[in-house]
Amino acid sequence: MSTNFSVIGHMMVPDHQIMSVEEVEELLNSYKITRDQLPKIYHDDPAVKEIGAKINDVIRIVRNSQTAGRAEAYRQVVKRPKK
């Protein structure tokens, strides 16, 4: 028995978006950081796989926040290291 389940569609999973090259450059310039300084997310994360992100893409994660209203986080997609 096979069940199709959308990770992104679940109410507990925040919105994940692949950022364009221009958006990434603007982000890095505004925070005065390099790509290597961004937090990481593994390429095999279920949400990353579902949106079709590739290694080195930058993901914007948008959450609803009771205090801030809307909170954005950014992650660079990296390959999970072998054990």
From TrEMBL:
Transmembrane segments: none annotated. One of its GO terms (cellular component) is DNA-directed RNA polymerase complex. DNA-dependent RNA polymerase (RNAP) catalyzes the transcription of DNA into RNA using the four ribonucleoside triphosphates as substrates. GO terms for biological process: transcription by RNA polymerase II; transcription elongation by RNA polymerase I; tRNA transcription by RNA polymerase III. Pfam families: RNA_pol_Rpb5_C. Part of the RNA polymerase complex. Its main location: cytoplasm. The gene is rpo5. InterPro entries: Arch_Rpo5/euc_Rpb5, RNA_pol_subH/Rpb5_C, RPB5-like_sf. Residues 5-77 form the RNA polymerase subunit H/Rpb5 C-terminal domain. Its EC number is 2.7.7.6. This is DNA-directed RNA polymerase subunit Rpo5. It is found in: Cytoplasm. GO terms for molecular function: DNA binding; DNA-directed RNA polymerase activity. It catalyses: RNA(n) + a ribonucleoside 5'-triphosphate = RNA(n+1) + diphosphate. Belongs to the archaeal Rpo5/eukaryotic RPB5 RNA polymerase subunit family. NCBIfam families: PRK09570.1 (NF007129). It is an enzyme of class 2 (transferase). It comes from the Archaea. Keywords: Cytoplasm, DNA-directed RNA polymerase, Nucleotidyltransferase, Transcription, Transferase.
